[in-house]
Amino acid sequence: MSTGMITAYGGFCLIVFFIINRIALRSKDNDKKIDQVKETVQSEEINQLVQSEEIEKKPTPAQASEQQSFSVGKVLTVLLLGMFVSILNQTLINVALPKLMADFNVTTSTAQWLSTGFMLVNGILIPVSAYLVETFTYRKLFIFSMIAFTIGSIICAISGNFPIMMVGRVVQAVGAGILMPLGMNIFMTIFPPEKRGAAMGLMGIAMILAPAIGPTITGYVVQDYSWHFIFYGMAVIGVIAILLANAWFHISRKRSFPTLDIWGVLSSSIGFGSLLYGFSEAGNKGWDSTEVVLSLVIAGISLSLFVWRELTAKQPLINLRVFKFFSFSYTLLINLIVTTALYGGMILLPLYLQNIRGFTPIEAGLLLLPGSLIMGALGPLTGKLFDKYGIRPLAIFGLLIMTFTTYEFTKLSIDTPYLKIMFFYTLRSFGMSFIMMPIMTAGLNNLPVKMISHGTATQNTLRQVAGSVGTAILVTIMTTQTTNHMADFSNEVTSTNPFIMDWVHHAGAQIASAGGLTPSQGGALAVTSLYAQASKLASINGINDAFIFATALSCIALVLSVFMRSTKNRKFAQPQAKNQNKQSSETIAS
């Protein structure tokens, strides 16, 4: 693929992205007058309420100064930039994985720790986010997370072996693990329930545009330069975000200063870490190995202790009573199933395209580009549809598409057309755009304001763990089934199989004649070629088996979505009208 074609293709995808966004914005402008009237009425009611109530606690001069400098636009700009580079970092590694495997001389099961390990540290740190949000200011948390992310990027950039690279990924994850729940807390604080669908759609642009351009950028850099430049680039963006945050990121609120639940931190860290380690090592050592079984037993005990601790502690790390809200729990269950299938598929396709089919890294990245751009472009539109129609019709529609397209990936072969793979991946991404952000918003909308930070932490923790475990499971299925299929091929390639022996003799004679070799040398090369082809077929069948598992997960989520409650946000807001004015006045006071 020439540089001109690559440039033209990327430009075309970006044009489509901005056209779709423009259509969504125009639709938004048509409703602007109605929204302005509603906002004016609500503002007058809130002002009357604030004037009629006596506010005993007045803000300090420092808080008043901070409130005066508060700008929603500037805060969101800095926040989206930080979230963009954090998610970009999470998706860059997939396309670069085959190159890193070769440079560091590690297996697929080991290399995937660069992805699953990153998500695991996120999952371990996110439970602490509820405590951090109530203890430190948004500004301090954001700057700290970006500093950690930038330092981790620099470590990755200068790494010369796998252990140092893994250390850099862990440091990056420390920053990202704080940043993601922090961003969702800020969005849920700034915007009222009836506006959160569209607001989360705006956040979805950053969350989905990063995976859109990430694989393409990675492919271009890895192919023509060095993967080290990827992490140098993220470090530069991190420094820019830190400078902008220092100047713009000013937002104040009331904090409760809870006590850190040390035992909760320890039990969750050991539990989630052991769980992922057990699933990841199953691909190398087998499910019945002592190490894998022991890891899963430790995980079960630690996570049980974590649940008991959080339910009995006076100030829990995560308030698990959020699960008492049925709609939150139900949507979270579907979200976890979808995430498990999604993340695993994102790592399997680049391996198939590069390691088996021989496509270049940039061709693998470009294949993923249109689908991710569509997800980013449809973010605001699906947010508005969610505000208007609720979650159930969107989830059913999206999961129908996701199930069908995931099933199509169970039919990969040695010569599946490139454009066919692109089409189904793009269609799959189109369906995913109706699921990811709307279902997260639907769950959080059913929680009281005081529970949102805990709901956000719970949601993000379990999603990261589900993504990590999903990746580990699908990679384990791929490697295990690849070994099984290769064993089946080896059993067929025996001296007693007349068809195989005839092929070896015929191919060996041709190779010997063409290369001036002896018949025995030609036969040996023919057998080597046969095993290389069998290895490719075994790997493809292993990937197909992994996608069969992902399809089954998608079917389960689809069935569950049919029974989902579909309460529209505007109707949801009416029964809580008494509390809404109180919440709005608290937002103004903060």
Give a topology summary.
Elements: H1 3-30, H2 32-52, H3 61-68, H4 72-104, H5 108-111, H6 113-135, H7 138-158, H8 162-190, H9 196-224, H10 228-248, H11 262-285, H12 290-312, H13 326-356, H14 361-377, H15 379-389, H16 392-408, H17 418-432, H18 436-445, H19 452-492, H20 498-515, H21 519-562, H22 569-573, H23 577-589
Helix pairs in contact: 1-14, 2-23, 4-6, 4-8, 4-9, 4-10, 4-13, 6-8, 6-11, 6-19, 7-8, 7-10, 8-19, 9-14, 9-15, 9-18, 11-12, 11-19, 13-18, 13-19, 13-21, 14-17, 16-17, 16-21, 18-19, 19-21, 20-21
Search tags:
disordered C terminus, globular, mainly alpha, 590 residues, 82% helix, disordered N terminus
Describe the structure.
- The chain has helices spanning 3-30, 32-52, 61-68, 72-104, 108-111, 113-135, 138-158, 162-190, 196-224, 228-248, 262-285, 290-312, 326-356, 361-377, 379-389, 392-408, 418-432, 436-445, 452-492, 498-515, 519-562, 569-573, 577-589.
- By secondary structure, it is an all-alpha fold.
- The N and C termini lie far apart (55 Å).
- The chain has 23 helices and no strands.
- The model is unreliable at 1-10, 16-25, 27-69 and 569-590 (pLDDT under 50).
- The protein has a domain at 261-316.
- The chain is globular and about 85 Å long.
- The longest helix is centred in the C-terminal third of the chain and has 44 residues, at 519-562.
